[in-house]
Amino acid sequence: MRRALDLYTGNEEALRMRYESDISPTIISAKLKLVDSCNLKCFMCRYWTRKRTGDLNTEEVCRVLDGLAALKCKKVHFTGGEIFMRKDALFLMEYAHILGIRVTLTTNGTLLNKEKIKRLLRIPARSITLSIDGPHPKIHDTIRGQKNAFKKTLNTLTLLSKHKRRKNKIRINTVVNQRNHTYLPELAYLLQQFSIDSWLLIPMDAWEEKNKVPTLVDIKRYNTIVAPLLEEIVHLENFSPWIYGKTNGDLNSSAQQHYARSYYQKKPCFIPWFHVLVGPKGDIYPCCGTHRLIKPLGNIREQGIAELFNGEQYQQFRAQMRAKRLEQCHHCDDFLSENQALEVLREKIV
Questions:
Q1: How far, in Å, CA of 166 to CA of 13, rounded?
Q2: Which one, of 215, 213, 238, 241, lies nearest residue 226 by Cα?
Q3: Domains contained in the chain, number
Q4: For the chain, how far is it from start to end, CA to CA, in angstroms?
Q5: Any residues with CB less than 8 A from the CB of 88 and at least 6 apart, and which?
Q6: Are 2 and 338 contacting, i.e. CB atoms less than 8 angstroms apart?
Q7: φ and ψ of 72, to 5 deg
Q8: Rounded CA gap, 83 and 31, in Å?
Q9: Residue 240 lies in a domain
Q10: Has this prediction a pTM greater than 0.85?
């Protein structure tokens, strides 16, 4: 989405026209959620309960990538479930790179070895995001539901830090929950030992395991004690510990898992005009926040990605989103800063 900002800075009228149309000529980024399963058993996720049946095969994914390249897609993010449960994961990333698409991915890091890591870095994968939820096994393995998960992920982080090249960025995702929020300063000190480029704190969604989502009391404690400490300790670019906001209104909204904090009540989300998500069995959605929570907007086994992205269902969805955002939008902080920046550009014309 940063590319959208670059594209429309100084060309605000084109952004306004694109948003007001139900048709979108190009895709800037895509997420390929290619595995409907996971080797870990995280309590904030249910991918590990699903069986891998009917996933897109290698040829089908390559056709999707061909279609994305034809639509001038600049970046594809590979994820799952756990993407490296697919034996062809590295091949697919290499294929995307050959097509001129920037490759990024998220992994729990437990299925990688030195050989795979070196191959991944050579592609080059521009951004490799590891999921780390605690500073030691007692926390991380409890959240991730598997003994030795912390050890394996830290080994992968060590190898990535050692062998990364100039074009590789190493990023960390941490899902903040009741179990780990007070341990984040300790995790911050641990991460300083590695060559990482960014750290993203993600508030836990309440779709599953609601009893593990931070309460208002937890959030206030986090903002009073944890966030100020993190602000002192962490000096990575674009890092912010204030994931729940700062005002009382922000905190109350976050306690209800309204992480967009009312932004989308009146402001737009531009994602359906620039982005697409392809699910494990070929269903397409406008974004991760709608995956399996709305009816799919089509399936790539029935039509090509270009036909789907500007098909009747996608056009109807864009029109609907202009009129009113979905309930899921109010729980979402993904792309929030990008949407805010794009809206600043659009308002120069409106």
A1: 36
A2: 241
A3: 1
A4: 21
A5: 58, 61
A6: yes
A7: 65, 30
A8: 12
A9: yes
A10: yes
Give the pLDDT of the chain (350 residues) as one tens digit per residue.
677 778 888 889 999 999 999 999 999 999 999 998 999 999 988 777 777 889 999 999 999 999 999 999 999 999 999 999 999 999 999 999 999 999 999 999 999 999 999 999 999 999 999 999 999 999 999 999 999 999 999 999 999 999 999 999 999 999 999 999 999 999 999 999 999 999 999 999 866 566 789 999 999 999 999 999 999 999 999 999 999 999 999 999 999 999 999 999 999 999 999 999 999 999 999 999 999 899 999 999 999 999 999 999 999 999 999 999 999 999 999 999 999 999 999 998 76
d(CA 29, CA 31): 7
Residue 108 lies in a domain: no
How far is it, in rounded angstroms, from Cα 235 to Cα 230? 9
Largest Cα–Cα distance of the chain, in whole Å?
Answer: 55
Domain enclosing residue 179, as ranges: 36-58+113-256
Please indicate, yes or no, if residue 69 is contained in any of the structural domains: no
Is residue 339 within 8 Å of 270, Cβ to Cβ? Answer: yes
Cβ neighbours of residue 269 closer than 8 Å, sequence gap 6 or more: 321, 325, 329, 335, 339
As a whole number of angstroms, the distance between CA 202 and CA 217 comes to 18
Beta bridge partners of 30: 76, 276
